[in-house]
Amino acid sequence: MRAVLPVVRALVQAGHEVLVVLPTHLTTVFDGSGARVEPAMPNLVDAMVAEAAKLPATAGDGTLSPEDFTAPRVKMMDFVAGPHLCGTYQAVLPLAQDFRPDLVLRDGGELCGVLVAEKLGIPHISAPSGTGNIIDPESANELLNQRRKEVGLRERADVWSLYAHGRLDCVPHAYSFAEYPVPPAFTYRQPTPGPGQHVLPAELAALSGDKPIVPASVGSSLPVLLEMQARGLDLPDDMLEPAETFHAIVKALSSVDCHVVVSTGGVHIDTAELGPNIRLMDFVPQPLLLQHTQLFLTHCGYNSIREAIRAGTPMAALPQFGDQHHNANRLAEMGLGEWITDVSPSGVATVVEQVLHDKKIRQNVRTAQRAMLDLPDIETAVTHLECLAARTTAPRS
């Protein structure tokens, strides 16, 4: 939603009508955007609980075997293109037929939009997306063809059918986080928060400049994961219990000579071992804070990575699940930070100290920042979408 929202705002400001279809719990994200919002999509946790109950049946659909579900890549394919997609399609299609859009903009990991666009005979394009970066387009198209048959659409032989009309991204091509071969993205500069979109809290604005400021975050999706766990679903593969992760962060950074701001997402944290340099906050205006920090201890969500690069902030990566391990590896390859592989408090502290004093990483991040700031503004993305909708040749970024 955070990647789609700026494009929605820019489209509305350009005079276009925009319909956003999403789950009920995400509707407030688009408050004040000017778009029409319809909460018609299923709740993510509900869908995953239902999917978990159907795994044996899914494995017998002719495209997957039970053994396949041990592979994270296949789990991802089923997550984005499994049988549940048909129910979402049936819920969204009537709204789309009534609205009569000229274009579908979808999250990179949301493939119902592909089917709806194909049904209506209009272009579709993906927004910047961490999940989208780790989808294997060829394998996803095989599963998507199963869904096409189930809803009465023509199968597609193009292994890049997910990107038949392209994709959007907010990082330069040289810094792409796409794991598989995909068409080059139309790139634009990610906007900073506009007027009225949060301010830096007074206690953070008052932090002294005598030592580094280090924000730490494990992601805005953590409450969703905890809800999944409460409803009997296992946490994603290789993910530590959230309490263990927060314990390692707090204990590690209490020993580092820096100001620490931990974004908890409302999750309770034991304060017994808090150092005097630690501040716990339910919510932090992260893009603003990153403009004045020397290091970001991040879970490596794609939104957070883009915000850190745009701010020129080096990263210490503590990935949790999904695309985050891939992102951590990629940012280490590009020299924009380091991946914390020893998640003990001492291991976390060691990497944080290393990155804080690594001149080469600072130089690499500043180079990437300049490349990102050189991208055209979001209004060029609007023009690109207008050209797609009008079936004219879109300008390249």
TrEMBL record:
<keyword id="KW-0328">Glycosyltransferase</keyword>
<dbReference type="InterPro" id="IPR050426">
    <property type="entry name" value="Glycosyltransferase_28"/>
</dbReference>
<dbReference type="InterPro" id="IPR002213">
    <property type="entry name" value="UDP_glucos_trans"/>
</dbReference>
<dbReference type="InterPro" id="IPR035595">
    <property type="entry name" value="UDP_glycos_trans_CS"/>
</dbReference>
<comment type="similarity">
    <text>Belongs to the UDP-glycosyltransferase family.</text>
</comment>
<keyword id="KW-0808">Transferase</keyword>
<protein>
    <recommendedName>
        <fullName>N-glycosyltransferase</fullName>
    </recommendedName>
</protein>
<dbReference type="Pfam" id="PF00201">
    <property type="entry name" value="UDPGT"/>
</dbReference>
